[in-house]
Write a structure and sequence with these properties.
Blueprint lengths: L24 H23 L3 H12 L27 H24 L11 E6 L2 E7 L16 H14 L6 E6 L13 H18 L7 E6 L18 E7 L1 H9 L25 E3 L15
Parallel strand pairs: 3-4
Antiparallel strand pairs: 1-2, 2-5, 3-5, 4-6
Length: 303
């Protein structure tokens, strides 16, 4: 009986450890490896993208604030490689439109170079992409190069240049504004035909030639005559370079993005300070719808 009621003794044996916890250093190394692989594949993806996508990525890192996403969309749609897949992301649209204008600018430069006698005009033709779009300027030199003195009559060499520009711009969907500018020399013995009319008539003459070369009439949205209110060289108001015609292919997408950001791309550019005062009494630059014909007047002064 005594053996049946003997107490039960339980012996717990604790086995020895294996050196304790090894720490999480391997996790840090693994995370670095995964990060490096992700960066590598992103670079490989970017290298194989189109110029429009590359410009879009570049634009984002230069100014992330210009990108606006709609309805929480990802900045890069799956498989598309471009912002918003056509529905959101103004930044990509702006970059793509700017890239298209830059390609058009290069084509225009190449075609103008092929015109006989281009060497004589090279320093007076400027093609560049600005915040407002593609700007092409024909600037007068020491003598009247593009127009007869004091007249809107276009010279033969100018016709060739404008024809090249018109054929190239015909393929672009953006609206176009043609601007005329004069220097500060007073024009006209009376007030019936002044720098305002001359600048607008020269812009309108350029418009007609480009349309004759194949540019659709609907492309031109405005004809502007600024007289001498926006001088290219404000410190030298009588410099011949102030007499010019500017053809502006408007980048509507950039304008909308700038408006959404609270700023608007500048009005016609001038190299220098603020626009100089006009020789006429202050009033806004004349803006004409393209008429069927342009009146001609005598030219009392050289412009």
């Amino acid at each position: 009986m005594a053996a049946q009621h003997a107490p039960v003794i339980i012996v717990k044996k604790v086995k020895g450890g294996h050196g304790g916890h090894h720490g999480g250093a391997w996790k840090v190394a693994y995370a670095d490896f995964v990060t490096a692989m992700m960066a590598f594949f992103l670079v490989m993806w970017l290298v194989n993208q189109s110029p429009a996508v590359k410009n879009s990525v570049q634009s984002y890192f230069q100014d992330p604030g210009v990108f606006e996403y709609d309805h929480g969309r990802s900045p890069i749609a799956a498989g598309a490689g471009i912002v918003g897949n056509g529905g959101g992301g103004q930044g990509s649209d702006v970059a793509a439109a700017t890239a298209a204008l830059e390609r058009a600018a290069e084509r225009i430069k190449e075609q103008i170079k092929a015109i006989p006698g281009f060497k004589n005009l090279e320093s007076q033709i400027e093609v560049k992409v600005t915040a407002e779009g593609l700007r092409i300027e024909l600037q007068e030199g020491g003598q009247s190069t593009f127009f007869d003195s004091g007249s809107s009559h276009v010279k033969a060499e100018t016709r060739e240049v404008l024809a090249v520009i018109g054929r190239e711009l015909a393929s672009l969907p953006q609206g176009i504004a043609v601007e005329g500018h004069t220097d500060a020399a007073p024009f006209g013995r009376d007030r019936s035909y002044t720098n305002w009319e001359l600048s607008a008539d020269r812009a309108n003459a350029a418009r007609r030639i480009m349309e004759e070369a194949g540019m659709p009439a609907g492309h031109v949205k405005a004809i502007r005559g600024f007289a001498d209110t926006i001088l290219r060289t404000p410190d030298e108001p009588f410099d011949p370079r102030n007499r010019r015609v500017s053809i502006v292919v408007q980048n509507e997408k950039a304008a909308r993005a700038a408006k959404a950001a609270g700023s608007v791309p500048g009005a016609p550019e001038a190299t220098g300070a603020e626009p100089a005062a006009a020789s006429e009494p202050a009033h806004p630059a004349e803006e004409h719808a393209p008429p069927a014909a342009t009146p001609k007047a005598a030219a009392p002064a050289a412009h």
